[in-house]
Amino acid sequence: MSAAHPWLEPANWPKTPYPRDLLEERIERVLTMTNIGVLSTIGKDGPIGSPVEFYADVLSVYIFPQPNSPKLKAMQRDPRVSFAVMNPMAGWACTMGAQLFGTAKLLAVGTPEWQRGMEVFKWPASSFEVGRSLDGGPPQGLLMRLDPDRVVYTEHFLRKHGYAPRQIWRRDG
Predict the structure, then answer these.
(1) Is position 32 within any domain?
(2) Based on the structure, what is the number of domains in the chain?
(3) Going by DSSP bridges, is the β-strand pair 36-43/80-86 parallel, antiparallel, or unpaired?
């Protein structure tokens, strides 16, 4: 038995769904806690899981894939992806994460969608970190946007309040 967190006991495994508006807020929050996640694509020889930098706009995620990378080639062949992000804390009491599923949309340089994505994607910080000059503006490559069809959100703290620790969000409601 957990002395500090009795609601973590295996017997306490509620199945109650969290209200949709509050779930969307929780998903949006976990997408702001870090800017590193794992993008999973379907490669020629099987799954590819790649740690990537990302930035979110509500529930949409922007990722700047390296040109000619295996993950970019995989998305060009098969745009079905999943993307996982979790908080960097330790222990079941604070476990929080989301896995987003959907179709990767590769945005062409200079299009309005790409321009919007580059407003969201913090490219100056990323460029500075890798020693790329800021003088020429943002990097000129495809930008990936994931507008999830489904999100699996996990937060064990929800159990304390009688809600299931794993919640499913679907775009179609």
Answers:
(1) yes
(2) 1
(3) antiparallel
Q: For residue 135, what are the domain limits?
A: 24-170
What's the token pair of residue 110?
Answer: 């200079």
Please give the torsion angle defined by the CA atoms of residues 49, 50, 56 and 59, in that order, rounded to the nearest 10 degrees: -10
The string of pLDDT tens digits covering residues 94-150 is 889 999 999 999 999 999 999 999 999 988 888 878 888 888 888 899 999 999 999
pTM: 0.91
Mean pLDDT to the nearest integer, 30-54: 94
CB atoms within 10 A of CB 111: 11
**The Cα angle at residue 84 between residues 78 and 32, in degrees rounded to 5:** 125
Q: What CATH number should be reported for the domain holding residue 45?
A: 2.30.110.10
Answer for the pair 142, 65: CB distance below 8 angstroms, yes or no: yes
Please report whether residue 42 resides in a domain.
yes
What is the spatial distance between Cα 64 and Cα 72, in angstroms, rounded to a whole number? 9
